[in-house]
UniProtKB/TrEMBL annotation:
InterPro entries: Gfo/Idh/MocA-like_OxRdtase_N, Gfo/Idh/MocA_domain, GFO_IDH_MocA-like_dom, NAD(P)-bd_dom_sf. The keyword RNA-binding does not apply. This is Gfo/Idh/MocA family protein. Keywords: Oxidoreductase. Residues 134-252 form the GFO/IDH/MocA-like oxidoreductase domain. Signal peptide: none annotated. Belongs to the Gfo/Idh/MocA family. It holds the Pfam family GFO_IDH_MocA_C3. It comes from Cohnella yongneupensis. Gene3D superfamilies: Dihydrodipicolinate Reductase, domain 2, NAD(P)-binding Rossmann-like Domain.
């Protein structure tokens, strides 16, 4: 029987404690080997919660541990580049929270460092591992809803009262576009199978929240006249939906990005009527962890190679540039895949 992938957690962020660490424990492929925080007391408290033997009061100590195969990095966005590169240089495989970096150039640097070190790098974008994503894409390719015409997506929540939140630090890569706008943009890219040609975004920048984008509405232009209209933000009522519009029908996904249980259902509407598809209940975080391990072991190719994260990062950068400059940004390069 194969030994499990031994994980080290760099930072005791909420997403790690709430979702990813339990997913590793529940997985077929991984085990929690160690956790590190900026102080030993916090690290030890998290280690005790999960029954982990090893706790470290610094990230450097964790990277020096020879008993760790891979690390998960849930640190603030501006620290992703540094600690991914340092982990790669220490010979650790890296699962890094989204967005992968602050810029596409940083993402490319991280990819190059991991390639040079011979380690796997993946962006932790859990929703994409739900089997319904492939199911929906197959449904689109079948022609049941006709030719693609448009996407509509939204991901918003209201956390504006928490003025000290790390998402409200511009220099740390804060703002709604990076935090939740990445979801509808990545979903449209996935279902379209192509890259946008241009983006235009209008945003609310709040002086109360470090001048980050607290709400944004945008248009992403894909080849063939197909577009994504989206809104995202951290100062609006909670929503997370996605719609795919074709010439002969549409697909509505009411819980598009956070769906780990029975809320993964989606509707297919055609001239024949409406039907509800009910995918199996899964934990997308566990599926993500299992695929990562199998990629490390060479048992499969990654569903989402690291360069996909760099492409998404390029679009996020352009969205923010558009919002700040109140202008349409044309994306250079090859838009096919």
């Amino acid at each position: 029987m194969r030994e499990k992938l031994r994980w080290g957690i760099i930072g005791a962020a909420g997403i790690a404690v709430r979702a990813v660490m339990p997913a590793i424990q529940a997985s077929e492929t991984g085990m929690l080997q160690a956790v590190a925080s900026r102080g030993i007391d916090k690290a030890r408290a998290v280690a005790d919660k999960f029954g982990i033997e090893q706790a470290y009061g610094s990230y450097e100590e964790l990277l020096a541990d020879p008993n760790i195969d891979a690390v998960y990095i849930p640190l603030p966005n501006h620290l992703h580049r540094e600690w991914t590169i340092r982990a790669a240089e220490a010979g650790k495989h890296v699962l890094c929270e989204k967005p992968l970096a602050l810029t596409a150039a940083e993402a490319e640097e991280m990819i190059d460092a991991c390639d040079k070190a011979g380690v796997v790098l993946a962006e932790a974008f859990m929703y994409r591992y739900h089997p319904r994503m492939e199911q929906i894409r197959s449904l689109i390719e079948s022609g049941e809803i006709g030719e693609l015409r448009a996407f509509r997506g939204a991901f918003t929540f209201n956390n504006a009262g928490d003025k000290g939140n790390i998402r409200y630090r511009e220099e740390w890569g804060g703002g709604g576009i990076y935090d939740v706008g990445c979801y509808p943009l990545s979903a449209a890219r996935y279902f379209m199978g192509k890259e946008p040609e241009a983006v235009t975004v209008h945003a609310l920048f709040s002086p109360e929240h470090g001048n980050v984008d607290m709400m944004a509405s945008g248009l992403a232009e894909f080849p063939g006249g197909v577009s994504l209209t989206f809104d995202c933000g951290m100062w609006a009522d909670f929503r997370q939906n996605f719609e795919i519009v074709g010439t002969d029908g549409r697909i509505e996904i009411p819980h598009a990005f956070i769906a780990n249980g029975d809320d993964a259902a989606f509707d297919v509407i055609t001239r024949d009527g409406r039907r509800t598809e009910r995918p199996a209940s899964v934990n997308t975080y566990t599926l993500q962890v299992n695929e990562f391990a199998r990629t490390v072991w060479g048992e499969q190719s990654p569903s989402f190679p690291a360069d996909d994260a760099a492409r998404n990062m390029k679009i996020l950068e352009a969205c923010l540039e558009s919002a700040r400059g109140r202008t349409r940004i044309v994306l250079e390069g090859d838009h096919s895949r």
